[in-house]
Structure formats: C-alpha cells, structure tokens
Amino acid sequence: MALMMSLRFAPPASVAAPPPRRPRAVASSASSPALQRRRPQNVPGDFFVDHRCIDCQTCRWMAPEVFKRVDGKAAVAAQPISDEHRTKALQALLSCPTSSIHTEKPAKDILQVQNMFPLPIDNHLLPGVYLCGYHSQDSYGATSYLLTHPDGNILVDSPRYTTKLAENIEKLGGARYMFLTHMDDVADHRKWAERLKCERIIHSGDVEDVTADVEWKLTGNGPWDIGADFELIHTPGHTEGSVCLFYKPVKALFTGDHVAKSEESDDLDLFLMYSKQSVGLQLDSMRKLLKLDFEWFLPGHGYRIHYKDVHAKDSAIESLIANYTS
Ligand SMILES: [Zn+2]
Fold this sequence. Notes:
The protein is an alpha+beta fold and about 325 residues long. It is about 20% helix and about 20% strand. The longest helix has 16 residues, at about 310-325. Bound molecules: zinc ion (ZN). Zinc ion binds near residues 182 and 184.
C-alpha cells in the first residue's frame, strides 16, 4: 500500500531549515518572501501555498474543495467560490504547521475565523468533540482535539500554543486532562499545562526528556480510570507507549499514530514503515480494537473515518490485518 503521508519522525529533506511557526493572519505583499515562495502548482488567485509545505495533509482534509496534493506537496487546486469554502481555507491557513498558506489580499475576516477554534466537528454525531486547529510543526502537523465533559474537559494531544486558542478553550471550560497519545504528538504540552493547569497523561513507555515532568505516567497495560465515559487502550507497536482514547458516549476512538486512513482510498492503514517498536505488536493492537463498540476513528494525522456501525468498523480492521498478514 502506497504511503503518501509523512509523520514527524520522517520529514522530507526539503524541510531541513524549519520555517517560522506563526500563522500569517495578514496578506503577503507583492515583494514579500511568502509571495516569492509561491508554488507554481497553485492555480492563479488569492490563496496560495508556499514551497515550504511539508505535505502533512492538514489543509487537504480541512478544506478539500480548495487544496489538493500536486507534485508531492499541497497546492491550491481551486480558489474558494463560496463563503463556506473561504472560511474552510482560512481555517486551514491558521492550522498549517509551517505557515505555508497565504493570501495575496488582506484577509479581513481572519480574526473572525480565529474565534471559531476550537471547531465543533459535528454537533449531532459528535457532540462535545472539537478540533483545536493550530497544528504544530513539532508534531509534524498532528491533529489535537478537545472533548468537553461535565466532569472536566480533555485535550487530546497538543496543538500549537496560542493565547487566542487558550482563551477560547478556557471559555469552553479549560481542561482537566491533557491526554498525550504517544511521544510524537506532545508539541507545546508544557505551555498548555502551565496555562490550563491540566494534568498531563502519557504512557511511561513513551516518556522522553521533554515529557519527564508529565504528571501521570501510565504503566503496564491498564486499566486506567479517567472517568466512566472513557477507556484508555494500550496499543503498542507504533511506539511502546501508544495509547488510544475511547470516548464511549459518541463511539469515537482517538488513535494518535496507531492507525489512520489512507489518503488514496477508504482503507485503514498502519504506516508500518514508521512503526518504531514492532509491526507484530501493532497488528496485535489492532486486534484489540475488534472488541470495542465504536464507529469513529479520529487519528493524529489525516482524515477522520465514520463507519455506519460497529460491524463495518470491524470489517475494515479485519481487512487491514489481512492486508499485512496474507
Ligand atoms: Zn507517532
């Protein structure tokens, strides 16, 4: 199965010099460095992607009407033709981990779009589940989520720290926990913990120097109790300490890098070339997910997947395992 997605630990050579991390909320002037870096693969018009894109997929799943993959990186394939498409393109601009998306003209509505984050994903199907946006280059553009809950909110992995996002998360009740799925997607975890006074959680198998001060280090295979509506599932393989979070009321599984959707098809994929620990363990960890009553995969990278029922989810997992074992 072709692998088109790059994760933090395998950056392409073209990003050897990290670009500035802050999003451009204003336009690029004709002489600006950004405009000079405009990829020729963009269609003419206001929005464009620069050549420092790291091909993390984020803009393509946030605003698929506008952004496509062209010659190995993102490009504007169609300028926004509606207010909805423009809003989604600006959400992608703010979320781009390398600040590679720009507009030629001043984006006067950028502050309005900033205030949309965290973004509700689907008020009907996933009530209380939000996208944080503001992806970090430190986690290779990983997605972070906010779950609002009466017993205290949970941040899943770390967005890039910005005061505006912090203010907006506080308006939603802050966070009781910051759950870190694994070592690759911790980004600005310390700044968030200092601001929100949340308790960080990571598995001891994935603790590094940057996470040595995390408050709660999970050991063994659990179970671990963070509330009756949640279950933490140890899913080693991608890393020793990879853990998925199962949010039972909405039948959603937050997977970190344990599993993701192929960009070329509707299939699940494991990206085994990035498996840091053991391919066999990662497949065993997929088998654990057959026992769980969920319909959504919310991965650390790439597109979300919603199955019509648990049987369809199990069928997809069985196909994935068969692909790698037959
Ligand atoms: Zn990872």
